[in-house]
Amino acid sequence: MDQQKIEAILKTLTLEEKASLCSGLTSWTTKPVEGKGVPSVFMADGPTGLRKEDREHEAENGGPSVRATCFPTEATLAGSWDPQLTRAVGEAIGAECRAHGVSTLLAPGVNIKRSPLCGRNFEYYAEDPLLAGKLAVGFIQGLRSQGVGCSLKHFACNSEETLRMSISSEVDERALHEIYLRAFEIAVKEARPSTVMCSYNRVNGVYAADNRELLTGVLREKWGFDGLVMSDWGAVNDRVQGIRAGLDLEMPGSGGVNDELIVQAIKDKALSEEELDTAVRRLLRFVFDCAESCTPVPCDYEAHHALAVRALEESAVLLKNNGVLPLKKGQKILFVGDMAEHPRYQGGGSSIVNARALESPLAAARRLGYEVSFARGWPGGDEDRQDAGLLREATAAAAAHDVTVLFLGLTDVYECEGYDRTHLSIPPSHTALLSALRAAGKPVAVVFSGGSPVELPWLDQADALLALYLGGEGVGQAACRLLWGEADPCGKLAETWPLSLSDTPAFHHYPMGPRYVSYNESIFVGYRYYDTVKAQVRFPFGYGLSYTSFAYSDLSAPESVGRGEELALRFSVTNTGGRAGAEICQCYVHHEAPSAFKAEQELAAFAKVFLRPGETRQVVLKLPARAFSFYLPAEQDFVVEQGRYELRVGPSSRELPLRAVVTVAGETSLRLPAAQLASSPYGSIRDNRFPDDWFETLHPLPARENRPAQRGEFDRTTPLGELAVTWPGRLMRRIAYRVGGASIRFVRSPRVNRRIVRRMTSEFPVKNTVLMSDGLIDYETADALLDVCNGRGGWKRLLCGLGAALKKLGRGG
C-alpha cells in the first residue's frame, strides 16, 4: 500500500485505536481495526521450520503445531558456509508459511556465540559476525522471495540465556559495533528484513525495548532500516519509553494494559501523538505489506524433505577420520546408541517444529538397503542412565562386526532455550559406552548430535568423528549417505571447539548475574581470542575434513589499494583427490602494525567451490574497504587506518598457506585514547582473565553491586526467584509456574519441560506477571505485591487486585 493511503487511514483512527494497534491481539496476530480497513496478520516461530500453533488439531497433528518440514538448525546450516543454501531453506519455509496463511516468520537469529555454554546456541549461526550476517542474508532473501516477512532477532547482545529477561549486557563500544551488532548490520543493509525483534535483556543498563540509541540511532539512522521493530514475547519494559525509543509493536500484547498507558501519556503530554503516529505508520505499512502477500499457495513437501537431507549433507562437519570412513560395501556394520533410533534432530524451545517426515539413521539405513545391526547400548531418554545388560550386549555385538558406528551427543536436558549449560561434557553413559566399544577391538566411528561444541577427552577412542549438530528431519538419510560416502562431507566449523571450557575467552565472565554480565574479553571472541594468544584448540574455526583433498596455489593480489576501494583477490584451488567434493575457501586479514589493539586476524571473505577430481578453479574474493576497518568510538564510526595488511588464504583459520601483503590507504592520524592503543593491556593479551580494571578502561561497570535484590530493593524488574525469599513471592512464583507449565512446551518430554518451566519462571521479572497475563493483572496489583514483599504494606491493594483478576477469570476474560 502506498504512503498516501496509509496517511488517509491514519487520519481516521482514534487515539485509542492507534494505541491498540501497537500491541498484539493474540500470541501470534496483530490487531485489526473494524470498519477502517486494517486487517490482522499472522506470524509464527522459526527458524528451523514453520511452528504454527494448532491446539485444535493436536491429536491429528501429533503435536501442538501444524506438521511442517524440519530443517537443520542454524548452528548446523552454518557449517555449510553457503548463503545460497540458507536462501533455499528460507524459500522452502516461506512456501510452507504461505500454505498456512503465515505472513511473517520470527527468524533468523544472528546473536554471536560468545560462549559454547549458551543454551540457545543451536539457534544461532556463528562466533563470527561476517559469516552469521551473510548466512542470514541468504535466509531472509529466501523468505522474501515467497512474499513472507521475517523478524531478525534478538537485537541485541542476547548471548546468555541465564536471567535473559532482566540482566544487563555490559559491552564496550568497539565490541558492540565490531562483534555484536555487525551481523545485524549486514542483514539489514543487504537483505532489508521486514521486522527486527528486540531482545529481552538490557544493553549497558537500558532495556533493549527502551533503547533509543539502538532502535533508532543505530538501526534506523545509521543503517537505514525502514521496517517494523517488535518486541520479543514479553520483552517490553516501559511501553511509553519504548514508543519514544522506536519500539513499534508489543508482542503478544498485555490485554490492553500498556495501550491505556500510551493513551494516558499522550493526554498527560508525556508522549506526543506524532511519536505514536510514527509507530502506527510503520505498523500499517507492515500489516498491508503482509496482507498483500499472504494468499495461501500449495507447496511441495517432498521437495522440501529432499532439501532438508541435502542441507545436512552440505553442512555436517567431519572432524576426524583415521580411514574408517566412508564405510565400505560388504562390511558388517553395527549401529549403537539410542540416538540411532531416536535421533535428536532439533533444539528445544520456541523453535521446536512438528516434523512431517522424520526418519532415524537406523530406519534410513535399512530402507536404503544397507546391512546394519543395532544395539541400544544405553536406555535412552533424557536422564543419564546406564544399563549393564545393554552395555554387555553392545560390546559383544561390536566384537562380531567390522565397524561400529556410535550415535551419541547432547540430550534435551543438556541444552535448551531458557537456560545455559554449566559444562561442556556429554552424558557419562555415552562416554562409558564408547570406552566399552573400543575395548572390543574394532574400529569405532562416532556420530555426534548436539547444538554446540563439547569437550572431547574421549577423542582418542574414536577412529572417526562426524558432527551432525542438529540435523533436522532428514538426519537419517543424510547420515547414511555421509557414512557410506554417497555424499561427501564438506562442512566446516562456524565456531571453535576448545580443548576445555576453562580455555574459552569468556570463561571468567560467563554466565554472570543477577544484575549484569560484563563482556570483559571485548572484541576477542572465538577465534579472534584463540588465534591472538596462540592457544591450542581441539578444532579451529573454519576446520573440516573431506573424503577428497584440495591444494591452494597462485595467489594474486594488488600491492596497494586506494582509500575506500574494493580489493579483488585471486587464487586457484585444485581437487587433488579421487572424489568430487566442495572446498570452503577462507580469507583472513592481519594488520601488521595497528595503532589500536586488534585481534590477530579477522575473517574478511569466503567462498564455497565444487570441484571434480583433478579440476582446478580460480577463485575471486572481493574485500570491501570495511574488511580493513575497526570501530573508532571517538568518531562513532568505522575507520580504516593506513598501513600494511597481510591477506591470508586457506582452508581454516589455522591453515592459511597463501599469503600476500597489501598497502591500504586510509587515516594516518587517529585520535585514540590510551585504553584503545595497541600498547594497552588489550594489545598484549596472553590469557582469558581479562580483569575488571582492564575492562573499566573501555567501559564503566555498573555501580550497583552484582547481587540479588534484598527486601526493600524489589522492583518491577526483580525476578520472581529473588522475590521468593518472602512467602508472597514464593506464592507468585508458584502461580507463574502453574500457568507456564500449562502453556509452555519447549520439549516433548513432560518431565524435562517442567524442569525448564520451573527455571524460567524463577527468572521471570515481576513486570511480566502483568505483560503475560492478558490483562488479568495490572501494574497496581504488581506494585502492591512489591510493597508487600518489601515490607511496606500493600495488602489491601494486593487482595483487591487479585480479587479483580479472579472475577475476570470467572467472566472468561
TrEMBL record:
GO terms for molecular function: hydrolase activity, hydrolyzing O-glycosyl compounds. GO terms for biological process: carbohydrate metabolic process. SMART domains: Fn3_like. Residues 583-653 form the Fibronectin type III-like domain. The keyword Cell division does not apply. Keywords: Carbohydrate metabolism, Glycosidase, Hydrolase. Residues 38-66 are annotated as: Disordered. Gene3D superfamilies: Glycoside hydrolase family 3 C-terminal domain (3.40.50.1700), Glycoside hydrolase, family 3, N-terminal domain (3.20.20.300), Immunoglobulins (2.60.40.10). Residues 50-60 have a biased composition (Basic and acidic residues). It comes from the Bacteria. InterPro entries: Cellulose_deg_GH3 (IPR050288), Fn3-like (IPR026891), GH (IPR017853), Glyco_hydro_3_AS (IPR019800), Glyco_hydro_3_C (IPR002772), Glyco_hydro_3_C_sf (IPR036881), Glyco_hydro_3_N (IPR001764), Glyco_hydro_3_N_sf (IPR036962). Belongs to the glycosyl hydrolase 3 family. This is Glycoside hydrolase family 3 C-terminal domain-containing protein. The lineage of its organism: Bacteria, Bacillati, Bacillota, Clostridia, Eubacteriales.
